[in-house]
Amino acid sequence: MLPSLTNSDCKDTNESNSCSSNNLQVILFFFSLYLVAIGQGGHKPCVQAFGADQFDEHHPKESIDRSSFFNWWYFTMCAGCTVVLCILNYIQDNLSWVLGFGIPCVVMIIGLVVFLLGTKTYRFNIEGNEKNGFVRIGRVYAAAIKNWRSNIAFTEEAGNVIPQPCSKQFRFLNKALLAPNGSKVEEEACSLSEVEEAKALLRLAPIWAASLVFGIVYAQVRTFFTKQGVNMDRTIFPGFDIAAASLQSLITLAIVIFSPIYDCVFVPIARAITKKPSGITMLQRIGFGIFLSIITVVFAALAEMKRLETAIEYGLVDDPSATVPMSVWWLIPQYFLFGIAEVFTMIGLQEFFYDQIPDELRSMGIALYLSVIGVGSFLSSFLISVIEKVTSKDGQTSWFPNNLNQAHLDYFYWVLAGLSVIGLALFIFFAKSYIYNKKGMVQG
């Protein structure tokens, strides 16, 4: 809405048409981008945790409804993204960027007003412990380290009785139950609940690490999947070519279609078989999604092999800008399959990290789920850099040249499939030994 650039700010030449913006516009532009990042940092980790807190986890029906909440939250988010891709992008490119940004601005204001109007009806969890969650857990680790070299036997004969029930995993943390001098002094030693919270947080680490393979595959969907479609025939009907980036809408479309099917069809059937309220466990849901991501990269590898064969057949290997006579619809299976994989893994990770982390740290639990994607993207970049360096030795063409017709994305996809198989095996191993942390009770 700011006054547009004056003619004196633009330089027209035969080679380029460029405009330079003034300092105020540059500052405002980057300030806006940073505001988006700050807003997302406050909103994304908290909105799901706050929404799920509205359900009583000790009430049988509300506990089931809470599991459905994560499904429908992800459904509505993806439905919104689908609308944006279909409508707002068109408005911004063909009508007005002011209108394209103004519409979501007004919608956000309405959403904020509705959110504030509900303030009187929200449930807020009241902390039963005065100590901060981070302080409590940090205190447990500190106490366990102090007593690390202690030879005190945890027996009644030694006068050091460990309260029961006490979980069997990570027994070294049980030393935090004792005072540093070896005698049990209740006001100095950590409580059983504090020790179990620390163990619950530590149990999440292997699951988080094993889930990173999904984050690595996730990074390819927004990058190499799109690059695959750039050189393919993207004609939908005569006179209209779909943008390669718009293929990502197939993922959100798959999520919008499959989420209700999962919640209304799959869960009731699974519940009748397993007798579990959620149908399958959270870890089973995550693991199946990782399995689907493996199938996704296999389909991507096969499609890329077909694309390269077509490029060779028509003599287009040395022409990076040529359109390979192969329909972009060959990429539909990998996009659609990954959308279904997200319904299982992404929503499963949301619910798992929310449910299994100490109550006061639930927003941090959602942040952990988000970090799977963030760290996975960094690992993907690192992996590509290593492969680029190794395959380009001695003047050879690497797997990732600018000319995609000379590249070998198919090799890279097969590497990802192999890594994902290893990651899934590790995930299954850790999942089998995982002890669910049921709030209000300690499992052995």
UniProtKB/TrEMBL annotation:
Keywords for the protein's UniProt record, in alphabetical order: Membrane, Transmembrane, Transmembrane helix
Alphabetized SUPFAM superfamilies for the sequence: MFS general substrate transporter (SSF103473)
Among Gene3D superfamilies, the record links this protein to: MFS general substrate transporter like domains
Q: Which GO terms describe its cellular component?
A: membrane
| InterPro entries according to UniProt | MFS_trans_sf, POT_fam
- Molecular function via GO: transmembrane transporter activity
Q: State where the protein is found.
A: Membrane
- Bilayer-crossing regions: 72-91, 97-117, 207-225, 245-270, 282-303, 335-354, 366-387, 411-431
Superkingdom of source: Eukaryota
Membrane topology is:
Multi-pass membrane protein
- Main subcellular location: membrane
The record's family statement is: Belongs to the major facilitator superfamily. Proton-dependent oligopeptide transporter (POT/PTR) (TC 2.A.17) family.
The name this protein goes by in its record: Protein NRT1/ PTR FAMILY 5.10-like
Q: Which organism is it from?
A: Senna tora
Q: Where is the organism placed in the taxonomic lineage, from the top? A: Eukaryota, Viridiplantae, Streptophyta, Embryophyta, Tracheophyta
